[in-house]
Amino acid sequence: MSSEVVSQTQAERARAIAAGETFFHPNLIPTHKRLPVAFTHGKGVWLFDEGGRRYLDMLAGIAVDTLGHADPRLVSAVSEQAGRVIHVSNNFHIPVQEQLAERLARLSGMEKAFFANSGAEANEAAIKLARAYGHRNGKVVPQIVVMEKAFHGRTLATLWAGGNTKIQAGFGPPVDGFVRVPFGNVEAIEQALDANPSVAAILLEPIQGEGGLHPLEPAVLDRIARLARSRNVLLMLDEVQTGIARTGKIFAFQHSSIVPDVMTLAKGLGGGLPIGACLVSGPAVDVFGVGSHGSTYGGNPLVCAAANAVLQAVEEDDLASRAVDVGNHVQALLRSRLSVPGVVEIRGRGLMIGIELDRPCSEIVRLSLDAGLLLSVTAERIIRLVPPLTITREEAEQGVDLLVPVILNFLRA
Hints:
- The protein is α/β, with parallel strands linked by helices and 413 residues long.
- It is 39% helix and 18% strand.
- The protein has 13 helices and 17 strands.
- The protein has helices at 3-18, 60-63, 72-82, 95-108, 119-136, 156-161, 165-168, 186-195, 218-230, 301-316, 319-337, 363-371, 393-412, and strands spanning 39-43, 46-49, 54-57, 112-116, 143-147, 178-181, 199-204, 207-208, 214-215, 234-238, 262-265, 276-280, 343-349, 352-357, 373-374, 376-378, 382-385.
- Strands 4-12-11-10-7-5-6 form a seven-stranded mixed β-sheet, with helices on both faces. The protein has a four-stranded mixed β-sheet with strand order 1-2-3-15.
- Strand 2 and strand 3 form a beta hairpin.
- It is globular, with a radius of gyration of 22 Å.
- Keywords: Amino-acid biosynthesis, Aminotransferase, Arginine biosynthesis, Cytoplasm, Pyridoxal phosphate, Transferase.
- GO terms for molecular function: identical protein binding; N2-acetyl-L-ornithine:2-oxoglutarate 5-aminotransferase activity; pyridoxal phosphate binding.
């Protein structure tokens, strides 16, 4: 593209943003309807647009920017590693990758890790592992029990492991091998195991993120884990959104007394760099061997350096405790100021908070942007707040002050 065309395209984008209109770049496949803003830089929990206006980030790139923006520790770790080596093949030893695997094992109580580039890839690894485990145990057509309203990614297998019919539309035929039950319903899971002797694993999210911020009670997770163990099936937890101190523990399963057989991570692990992980323990440890799975970019030195810096900061700053303190404070403020018709429930755990309204509310995203606040709406009626874990009480209060009038005005309209 010539410089004249680039200049013209940039001018058109700037005009559309200024007018608050949707703009689709001519060289990008329009898979996202982008909001009329472009950010130039960030600091902490704040982002700044091309006009210099600042926005309080209560979205964190959808639970990705664990340390906020331009955290000096993360910047230093990434810059230093980029100056050494960014990428080498997994055909060689990668010490910084080994350090990350050791750190994750220590923090989780699990044993081994495979590194990928995203949450969807981590879940693909888990699905493959479950099928291999099933074949090892004589199950010719292995099945995986999954939950209604689940979200595990947008690749073909993860798309059909999830329960969102809207994003599945147009991509059939379905990928077979999944048995769907209501989220967290132990009796339904047991019935599915009884009816399907080929089940090799149970896959679920400790808190359904895209499905509407529905937490699974720790006691229920304990029951599901006991059931899985008694039937010799793997318990696989998708902690792509809940992991890395988001819910007030380093991993959400740690609110219970269990350790899963398989756990997937991504989002907050890299603090903004693309990394996913599939951790295994117990009966899942030796299912994969040389050649059974792989990734060209997975676990390269750059992203592993970032993840190590994130986890070190999470531990040193005790960001799990901060997530509990600030999250409880935000929920209390919201409940006191949003006890009005139209607000169905405020729920969540740590800094993963959902505000359920009695009507579709996607318009809230744009209205909040106009007010200087970034957030998202999921499952049509759930306002999702997943800010950086570095957010202070005072900054969170600013977010509530910006958000409450937006919701009240929306409900009155």
